[in-house]
Amino acid sequence: MKKFFSSMFNTSPQVKNISKDKEEDDWVDRLENETFLSNEFRFQHQNEKYQLRATPNEKVTLGVLLNRTFDIRQEEVSDLYIVTDNIREKKGRLIVDGNEIWNFDLCNAVLIKHDNGDIGYRFSENVVLSISYRKGYAKQEDNDKSIGRVNDTIIVHLRGCGGGKDTWFIRASIMLPTFSHEGDKTYTRTVNQPQTLSVLFAYDNTSPEQRIEEYKAIHDRTIEKFNNGEELEFNEHCIISQMIPTIGKDFYWGNEVLKENRYWDAIVYLENVYHALRESWLRSDITDEDKRMFYQTCYIIGYCYAEMCLYEKALFYLEIVRPLNNITYNIEYINCLANSRDIRAIYTIHGELNQLAQLKENEITDSVIYYHNFLRRRRAYTFVDMGRLDDAEEAFKEMLNEDANKEYAKGELEYIQELKKRKSTES
Questions:
Q1: Residues 269 and 251: beta-carbon distance below 8 Å
Q2: How many of the other CB atoms lie within 10 Å of CB of 40?
Q3: Which of 106, 167, 297, 355 is the most exposed place for a label (fewest CB within 10 A)?
């Protein structure tokens, strides 16, 4: 795994003596190749009836997509509303003609061909389709007046997945909500969960036969070399990365995007690491190094959720690392409890303070002193949240002569005085 991870980021030594322009061109080609091979793998490994390819002369239509995925007929759909997300504002367009709806070109909704022949996104990367749906409806006279057959809505979300080698890929995520029924009936089969499916389809600007044959050759060779433990080339890494969890790569990028305060992006990467390592642990197939990565991943995910004020989610991950008694992990866990006004906060803080009080003198390090000061500040802060203003005031006054806590204590004491004035005014 380490060899695989490092090879994804190291360029070949052969590029050292070539020009900068040539190096940049090679890098672009390499990225396009990686995009094509990775997407083509996902495309080829979905159900054959969902493997839809469009060309300049052949369309992938909304009707074909709905019929192939959920066996929906043309008579059952009407009123297509298209919402385009162009970042600055969302715009919509309504189509009511049944034939136009059924033959709606999905690739044309996302992609645009410029005058110079280049392909690009028409509206950012996302388009949402809202389709009126009447289950079981037929054009002929229908005497069935069932409540469950009134108009409902199907949602189709289209997202561009990138292009390379003259092929562009688009992911369609389709959702059929739980349709209305008298008394909100509970369905045993679906447990009242919406039906969802994600499908990847392709737009080939030129004939894809040669590219697909190359892909299949690389795919078969990659599996054989991987099973034999042989060194993989870059193109083969692009294939194998879709077959095995790229733990190292996701952990690296999760930490990188976190540096830019992109909390949600970091979670997307790191949850892949969490799930992969959790499964390894459950199979008793995990190394000590991977255990350390697992705990660090839990801590970072918890931190990210806490920064977004999603405290319940944060606590789920932070409680995993809580038994390690790591000061950094403990601080984040207690901050999360305190900031979410969790009733466990004060008891947890007192428990930690009692543990520190039992340490021997030679066990007290700078980190322990830092942690002790943190706990005392958090304890006083929690008293404020609990309305125990006198206890909080007493605790903060004890800190006024301490360099580490003085400035924080001054600000909190002023805040407490303001709270007491408000309380006396209200009473």
A1: yes
A2: 27
A3: 355
Residue type, 156: V
Q: Answer yes or no: are the C-beta atoms of 43 and 83 closer than 8 Å.
A: no
How many alpha carbons fall within 13 Å on the CB side of residue 315?
A: 15
Give the three-class secondary structure for 53: strand
The upper half-sphere exposure of residue 179, i.e. CA atoms within 13 Å in the direction of its Cβ, equals 16
Of residues 185 and 213, more confidently modeled? 213
Does residue 161 share a domain with residue 34?
no
**Has residue 144 been placed in a domain?**
no
Across residues 253-282, what is the average pLDDT? 93
Please report, for the chain, how many H helices and E strands are present, in that order: 16, 9
130 and 154 fall within a common domain: yes
Is 405:376 a contact under the CB 8 Å cutoff? yes
What is the structure's pLDDT at 40? 87
Q: How confident is the model at residue 414 (pLDDT cuts 50, 70, 90)?
A: confident
Is 236 found in the same domain as 175? Answer: no
421 assigned to some structural domain: yes
Name the pTM for this structure: 0.60
If asked whether residues 29 and 118 sit together in one domain, one would say: no
For the chain, how many structural domains are there in total?
3
Please check whether residues 391 and 415 belong to one and the same domain.
yes
Q: How far apart are CA 417 and CA 166, in angstroms?
A: 68
Beta-ladder partners of 131: 80, 154
Q: Closest by alpha carbon to 172, among 63, 255, 99?
A: 63
Cα separation, 118 vs 330, in Å, equals: 53
Q: Contact at 8 Å (CB) between 345 and 363?
A: no
For residue 395, what are the CA distances in angstroms to 206, 333, 344, 368, 389? 73, 22, 19, 19, 10
167 and 304 both lie in a single domain: no
Per residue in 10-19, pLDDT (tens digit) is: 433 333 444 5
Each residue's pLDDT tens digit, 329-383: 999 999 999 999 999 999 999 999 999 999 888 898 999 999 988 998 888 888 8
- For residue 421, the model assigns a pLDDT of 79
Same domain, 10 and 98: no
Q: Please check whether residue 28 lies inside any domain of the structure.
A: yes
C-alpha span between 309 and 340 (Å, rounded): 8
- For the chain, the average pLDDT equals 83
Please report whether residue 145 resides in a domain.
no
Residues 67 and 9 in one domain: no
Q: Range of 161's domain?
A: 48-136+150-181+189-206
With beta carbons less than 8 A apart as the criterion, state whether 210 and 218 touch. Answer: no
